[in-house]
Write a structure and sequence with these properties.
single chain, alpha+beta, 4-stranded antiparallel sheet, 20 helices, 46% helix
Length: 553
């Protein structure tokens, strides 16, 4: 029987939870019903809790209140997507419930979990049943009941897990979309995964990857066990590539990289792949990988130099520790009343928002939700007293809203759900208005915009009577699936019929990074012929994921 939970045990529970989500994130992602490539819930929850894991690895304090507070603060700033924000709020409430405690009892832990559920429900304007909110609430109800009967923390978590699993199974019937697909809620699955890890950690069935309880050797002692000359491959090389063809197999790339280095790890999803390899020829690794994708970000470090520094008792310099003499301060003082931050992807889109008056662009959108910290940095770098943030994606709005209490600047989040809505809002910018009136004008402009999207199916699916195969073109209008086709002309006809009913006056076609200009011109000409009374404009947006984004007014 365990009657008290100390900081060390809680830290280990959190680290195990992170690793469990990392191991199951793809399974959780695949529960997302809509077949568009969104890399959604599992990835976002894992990235959110990974910020806490990184913080806890550096933390020596063993008080449970400090562990909870540090984890919650890290998750708040690292929150990505709605599922990540809700997860951070659950842990923010837990931290408040544990405030001042060196250790906690079953009743105190259950009460802290209740505070987390309350915080999450308050943050969601219209809480829906059959989601992570439901699962966390039902699991917590079970935890509170058991804590009233028994002081055993493990028994309390067993009850919470049993109730959480039951609630998770019931999500299928609570949400019509889940019912049609015959799956459970992805966020709820993520929460149950965390509870399973918590219990497994307390019972000693699972341990984290050696972070807690590792031998207390200093880095110099560890690395002094071998000489610099024994490092066969000098460069620790890590990079992320955006796939050129999602379906292309990486086995040949793995074989090549393994032939020029060691410690090779390649992880991938539908949109990207990440490589970690030790090699003497990082340029060759990048060149070969460019046959499979476009470089997003890379970090290359000389391990021999780092090893020499450690042996000399110095702190090794890393790519993350190099200071840029031209880098901006973390907080920029106000030089004007209003500033504007927009979230979008694609060089053309970024340039368009800049031309319309946005001070900062946060790269992100579908498949790559920026964190609260990413948005917060842009806000703090905006030289204005009041900063308007246009998330331009329904899954980024909550992350943007978490910035409000984290900065001295006044942040106004305009809940734009698509990039065309954001563009329409900026076209109606009037800095002579008061903040409330300007926000209302933005939303009035955004509300007039219908957004059509052409993307591809990330997986086989059956949705709203449509049988969809992976790789097919998908056509959506205001987030509703219109249909799919193996040919682009097929979805074009589907879209044309739907758009015609809207009797548009203005049609703006933004073509993506994977579309040739001549092909986009043909689509624009066809739209002009189909809608002779509309003003049709073609713009190179350069956006990933979406072949076309179409603004209809």
């Amino acid at each position: 029987m365990r009657e008290f939970l100390d900081g060390a045990a809680f830290r280990e529970m959190l680290l195990c939870a992170y690793e469990a989500l990392e191991n199951h994130k793809q399974t959780i992602n695949e529960l997302n019903v809509f077949p568009v490539p969104d890399g959604d819930t599992g990835t976002n929850m894992t990235l959110t809790i990974s910020t806490a894991a990184a913080e806890l690895q550096r933390l020596e304090d063993s008080r449970v209140c400090v562990i909870a507070d540090k984890a919650a603060s890290a998750m708040l700033r690292g929150a990505r997507g709605n599922s990540g924000v809700i997860l951070s709020l659950l842990f923010r409430g837990i931290a408040k419930g544990m405030k001042g405690l060196d250790s906690c009892t079953a009743a105190e832990l259950a009460s802290a979990m209740r505070s987390g559920v309350d915080a999450a429900y308050k943050a969601v304007m219209k809480p829906a049943e059959g989601t992570i909110l439901t699962v966390s609430r039902v699991a917590t109800d079970g935890a509170v009941r058991m804590a009233e009967e028994s002081p055993d923390i493990e028994q309390m978590l067993e009850c919470a897990l049993a109730e959480g699993r039951r609630a998770l199974e019931e999500t299928t019937g609570q949400n019509p979309v889940l019912a049609r697909a015959g799956v459970v809620d992805a966020g709820g699955m993520g929460y149950v995964t965390i509870l399973e890890a918590f219990l497994g950690s307390l019972q000693g069935r699972i341990v984290s990857g050696g972070v807690i309880g590792a031998a207390a050797e200093t880095e110099s002692e560890v690395f002094g066990a071998f000489s610099t000359e024994e490092i066969t491959f000098a460069y620790d090389t890590v990079y992320i590539m955006r796939k050129l063809k999602p379906e292309k197999n990486l086995d040949l790339l793995r074989a090549y990289l393994d032939s020029i280095g060691d410690s090779l790890v390649i992880s991938e999803d539908d949109e990207m792949f990440k490589v970690h390899v030790h090699t003497n020829t990082p340029a060759d690794a990048l060149a070969e990988s460019s046959k499979y994708g476009v470089l997003d970000v890379a970090k290359i470090e000389n391990m021999r130099f780092q090893h020499d520094a450690l042996l000399a008792g110095k702190k090794p310099e890393t790519a993350d520790s190099i200071e840029d003499p031209d880098s901006e301060p973390e907080f920029v003082a106000a030089e004007k009343r209003y500033g504007f931050v927009a979230v979008c992807a694609g060089n053309g889109m970024a340039q368009l928002f800049s031309d319309l008056g946005c001070d900062r662009i946060v790269t992100g959108g579908q498949t790559m939700n920026p964190s609260t910290e990413d948005i917060l940095k842009a806000v703090n770098h905006t030289p204005a007293e009041i900063v308007f943030v246009l998330p331009n994606n329904k899954n980024i709005i909550m992350a943007a809203e978490q910035c409000i209490p984290l900065t001295e600047k006044r942040v106004v989040v305009v809940p734009t759900r698509t990039v065309p809505q954001g563009i329409s809002a900026m076209l109606n910018m009037d800095t002579n208005l008061e903040p409330e009136a300007l926000s209302a004008a933005f939303m009035e402009a955004a509300a007039k915009v219908h957004t059509a999207q052409v993307t591809y199916a990330a997986r086989d699916s059956s949705y709203d009577g449509h049988r969809i195969r992976a790789g097919e073109y998908l056509c959506l209008l205001d987030d509703a699936l219109l249909g799919s086709s193996g040919r682009l002309t097929g979805v074009g006809k589907i879209m044309g019929k739907a758009v015609k009913k809207l009797k548009p006056e203005f049609v703006t076609i933004y073509y993506g990074a994977d579309v040739k200009e001549e092909d986009a011109k043909r689509v624009s000409d066809a739209a002009a012929a189909a809608f002779p009374n509309a003003d049709v404009t073609l713009v190179n947006g350069g956006q990933p994921v979406y072949y076309y984004l179409v603004s209809i007014e």
